[in-house]
Amino acid sequence: MRSFFIALSILVPALVFGQDKSNYSALPLVPYKPFININGIDQRIALSRTDLLKYGLKVVLADKSFKVKEFHIVYDCHSRAYFDFSVKRYIGDSVDTKDSYLQNRIWVGDIITFECVVIEKAGSLFVMKNLDCWIIN
After folding, report:
1. pLDDT tens per residue, range 15-70
2. How far apart are CA 77 and CA 8, in angstroms?
3. Hey, how many other C-beta atoms are within 10 angstroms of the C-beta on 111?
């Protein structure tokens, strides 16, 4: 299972770059990870599926001088194939409760990955480390 997520971390940026022609690897890497916020509460590793569907989510940073510009979420397609996942790009810092991927692609026990989190500070763009979250009920 661990090797799956290592391979996922390597393959997803390549797939994402091919889709939207952005070169996130050219941006400087900020050496910390974002937090996921649901209903005003910072989450660490586990995200409640019930709360996600009720409140949506927001990507937040400890350093408030940065602004989240965009991010990608890697969703499992549940086909039982080893590398069957989809990537959805979100502009801004949040995902609304009505989002079709959020409503239909997240099951309890899934791991979703936040990739290519692009942040801005004083007009300069940076990219953050990936964040994996476990979906609980």
Report:
1. 444 444 468 888 999 877 788 999 888 887 899 999 999 999 999 988 889 999 99
2. 13
3. 17
